[in-house]
Amino acid sequence: MGAVNCDGTRASGYFWSAALGWSLVWNQDQETAIQSHQGGSKLTWSGPPLMPRSGRDRLRFIVAPTSGDSRTELQHLISLGASESRTDDDSGTILVDPDGNEFVLKRSEQL
């Protein structure tokens, strides 16, 4: 797969670049793309205008902290621009990125 395209702004591209530690490989005309240092598929954001939201996101990322400390990772993600959406569910803590896209942070005991 060449790329996974996401509906989103430059702010989300910057957020996910910092959150995952991936390089920003495209940043032009409100479009961004990131890629792992190891290569592989890219994640891209096509810029505004964003599609209207209706209901829960069909797809969402699941993030697992590499250190095993989900509380520290939660604070890190919030400092980068994430917001807590719900305290947690069976999957972990539900957060949203700068564009309001939900993602899950796994709890330490789930790793």
Automatic annotation (TrEMBL):
Residues 4-104 form the Glyoxalase-like domain. Signal peptide: none annotated. SUPFAM superfamilies: Glyoxalase/Bleomycin resistance protein/Dihydroxybiphenyl dioxygenase (SSF54593). InterPro entries: Glyas_Bleomycin-R_OHBP_Dase, Glyoxalase_6. It holds the Pfam family Glyoxalase_6. It comes from the Bacteria. This is Glyoxalase-like domain-containing protein. It comes from Arthrobacter terrae.
